[in-house]
Design goal:
By secondary structure, the protein is of the alpha/beta class. Helices cover 41% and strands 22% of the residues. It has eleven helices and seven strands. The chain is globular. The protein binds S-adenosylmethionine.
Length: 288
């Protein structure tokens, strides 16, 4: 586990922002609100619904669902990790958020609820942390009522710009070897972060039995100026608690000396330059 990140609440509140400038942090927070609004709208929450937020984290979606229910129905804050539920509970207690809610400690692939017991399931960036997406999607199908709706968002990390695409190859020692290593770990089928895309998710939804649905792709291009500390953060920030950093991933293929040399080359080549970074994500809903 990385030193900077001990658990999910710490990662959600601190670690994920560590490499960002204040302006980028604000942009990210605004973007998260936008993403949450799209998920909530696409869930078509009605007063009286029972809504489950799977992998609720610090409750980004669940609190919006509570507002939407306006004192009716129930929101189930569900997560595999107790620190997340504690954080949501603390927020409710300290701010006196109103509405009916339950806290449920459950992994997404074994949700402690009866069959056909919820109207809506909402989720953001959770499947990306689960190796076997099919078992979680089938479990969500199981707990939804007939006609129930599953609305979710996931980043498609394997389609993101790779580091080797940003650099000028002639400035990088062992460029081809580093390119090959990055391509290899970014398409690893054993790695939850990279083992899926929109096509595999569509297959998972079909296989689970969902009758209808839609997957929309969000392709974003962002431009920014690179700084050396930013490159350190790229390599040393864990993508989730307990998951290997980019540096640790490269260390599976190269010696520490070679990886440090690569990072130095990247800094020399990229510092002060404007880069364009491509990211892809899925917004989807499925109806049982
Ligand atoms: C990137 S965070 C997203 C949190 C929240 N949904 C949001 O949008 O801010 C991933 C969340 O998934 C949860 N999680 C990870 N693996 C899980 C699993 N197998 N079952 C349920 N939740 C899981 C983590 O505890 C964490 O809260």
């Amino acid at each position: 586990m990385g030193e900077t990140c001990k658990n999910w609440t710490e990662w959600l509140s601190k670690t994920r922002f560590a490499s960002l400038t204040e302006e980028q942090r604000t942009q990210t927070l605004n973007w998260l609100q936008l993403v949450a609004d799209i998920i909530i709208n696409s869930a078509r929450i009605k007063e009286g619904d029972t809504v489950i937020d799977i992998g609720t984290g610090t409750g980004l979606l669940a609190f919006k669902a509570l507002e939407k229910l306006n004192g009716t129905g129930t929101v189930i804050f569900s997560d595999k990790f107790q620190d997340c539920l504690d954080s949501c509970q603390e927020f409710i207690t300290s701010t006196k958020v109103s509405g009916n809610y339950k806290m449920l400690l459950s992994p997404a692939d074994k949700i402690d609820l009866p069959d056909e017991s919820v109207d809506k399931a909402i989720m953001r960036s959770v499947l990306v942390h689960i190796v076997n997406k099919q078992s979680s999607i089938s479990e969500i199908y199981r707990i939804l009522k007939k006609g129930g709706r599953f609305s979710f968002f996931e980043p498609v990390i394997r389609s993101n710009t790779r580091y080797w695409e940003l650099v000028r190859p002639e400035n990088i020692k062992n460029f081809e070897a580093f390119k090959e290593a990055e391509n290899s770990f970014m398409t690893d089928f054993e790695d939850s972060l990279c083992n899926f895309d929109e096509n595999s998710i569509a297959e998972n939804l079909d296989k689970a039995g969902f009758a209808d649905g839609e997957i929309n792709l969000d392709n974003v291009e962002s431009k920014y100026i690179v700084s050396a500390p930013m490159i350190d953060e790229w390599f040393n920030n864990p993508p989730a608690p307990g998951r290997p950093t980019i540096k640790e991933r490269f260390l599976r293929y190269f010696s520490a000396e070679d990886v440090n040399e690569y990072i130095k080359d990247l800094k020399r080549d990229l510092t002060g330059r404007e880069i364009t970074v491509r990211t892809k994500a899925i917004f989807a809903y499925a109806v049982k």
